Automatic annotation (TrEMBL):
Residues 9-18 have a biased composition (Pro residues). Keywords: Oxidoreductase, Pyruvate, Thiamine pyrophosphate. It comes from freshwater metagenome. Its cofactor is thiamine diphosphate. Residues 1-22 are annotated as: Disordered. InterPro entries: DH_E1 (IPR001017), PDH_E1_Alpha_Subunit (IPR050642), Pyrv_DH_E1_asu_subgrp-y (IPR017597), THDP-binding (IPR029061). This is pyruvate dehydrogenase (acetyl-transferring). Its EC number is 1.2.4.1. The keyword Oxidoreductase applies. PANTHER family: PYRUVATE DEHYDROGENASE E1 COMPONENT SUBUNIT ALPHA (PTHR11516:SF60), PYRUVATE DEHYDROGENASE E1 COMPONENT, ALPHA SUBUNIT BACTERIAL AND ORGANELLAR (PTHR11516). Residues 31-328 form the Dehydrogenase E1 component domain. GO terms for molecular function: pyruvate dehydrogenase (acetyl-transferring) activity.
Amino acid sequence: MAVKNPEGAVPPRPPSGPIPDTAAATEWLATMMLVRRFEERAGESYTRAKVGGFLHLAIGEEAVVVGAARALRDTDWLISTYRSHGHALARGTDPGRVMAELYGKTTGSSGGRGGSMHIFDLDRRFMGGWGIVGGNIPIGAGFALQSSYRGNDEVTLCVLGDGATNQGTFGETLNLAALWKLPVVFLVTNNRFGMGTSIERHSAVTDLVRKGEGLGVEGQRCDGMDVAATQAAISEAVEISRAEQRPILVEAMTYRFRGHSMADPEKYRTKEQVEEWKLRDPIPNFTERLIAEGIVDKTGAEELDKQAIAQVDAAVEFADASPEPAPESLHDGVYSLGGEVHGWLSTDPPQDPAS
Ligand SMILES: Cc1ncc(C[n+]2csc(CCOP(=O)(O)OP(=O)(O)O)c2C)c(N)n1
């Protein structure tokens, strides 16, 4: 049997998804530009030692990020992985708060305690940023379980990578989600690599839709380099999940243009392969499509990009000027008891009422 996506082959461009009205189409483009510019600056800040810990960029994957966020209602839930700056930005979290989180500042979306991998925004139902590969899958199903239990019409979108489909949590969660008919969409961002291992070397089954189907979860594949196609596919999945109360998997075929994280010699792929995929860059391609359709002109598109750069400049300024957490707050927020959050070095440790 032929391998569906042989290593290095750029999938042929399928028919693009429908373009929404002018305001929405322009907003999708502007948000992809914001995510791209934000991550470029985050990378620069990392090399200037302004950002500690890990930094995973999703440059190249913006169509999946924005397509996912624009398939959801405000009342839906979104949970992602450690590659999640864009998900927070697309969900509406202030870029200054996301940058400040990377900088470890008190004004960050997690008070500077989480860093790049743990962006979080409850007000926008963006439930993180998770560092453990596959760790977010059962938690995403948990959000869907609470929606199902309460009988409301919220859907959870749970983002994971191709590598995460090899984790035990993938099989365990999809099985239960199918049995319990949970309103959850598993969005597999298939960028073809788990760190430095290509999908052909890390997964016996490379057709990830089939992997879901084997567990009772129906799925479909989309062109993750095309924001309109991705939004349409995820939107359809979300609405079926909402109406029929059942899990669905969407496999978005995409590619990351940068290394896995900041220190990656990228020995596992060729420069030619990266360049080939860059021809499918979702931002210039969507820009060209909008120009061809008369939705924006070249100057208008350049203006959107300038606005994205200005937003990121302001975010960096905000993060730079924000205070560092006080050293004595080091243990704050470590655990909670009786609704109060305590640090284990608290001078007045809470008493467990049961003890
Ligand atoms: C349980 C666990 N094992 C290993 C790691 C180390 N690790 C971090 S990212 C990664 C690759 C995951 O690849 P994928 O799920 O495809 O996501 P991508 O990085 O491509 O977005 C690994 C193995 C981890 N964070 N957690």
